[in-house]
């Protein structure tokens, strides 16, 4: 009897996950003209608003693997959704065409949580913080911003840097 109830629960979970995984049918309707008020809220993507057309990795491990296999350096952006400094940098980063073009040369990862790798917080866990890792998987602590008290902090005015 116990085995039967486990099987029932298992089948229920499988059915539920299948139902939730199905995409809703696409409607072939023309979208209304978008204004600031009617613009729909887009679902959260891995870009988190830093550049939706760019390819972002989901985890630190995935970023390291892609770096090694593609021979591209990693750019890791630590930020928080409710931090005004992070929001300002995100806006400047996403709206700057040169930065977006340059970002294509990197394996990209943006994190709203800290990793367990202490190499990613060489001078503390503050946001926004941008670190680079070369394809040999070496954290490039020598690539810094202009602040001596927060070496890896960047502000919107630092975009040219």
TrEMBL record:
Residues 24-43 are annotated as: Disordered. Keywords: Endoplasmic reticulum, Secreted, Signal. Its main location: endoplasmic reticulum. The keyword Membrane does not apply. Residues 1-21 form the signal peptide. Residues 24-40 have a biased composition (Basic and acidic residues). The keyword Protein biosynthesis does not apply. Pfam families: Thioredoxin_7. It is found in: Endoplasmic reticulum; Secreted. GO terms for molecular function: dystroglycan binding. GO terms for cellular component: endoplasmic reticulum; extracellular region. Belongs to the AGR family. This is AGR2 protein. The lineage of its organism: Eukaryota, Metazoa, Chordata, Craniata, Vertebrata.
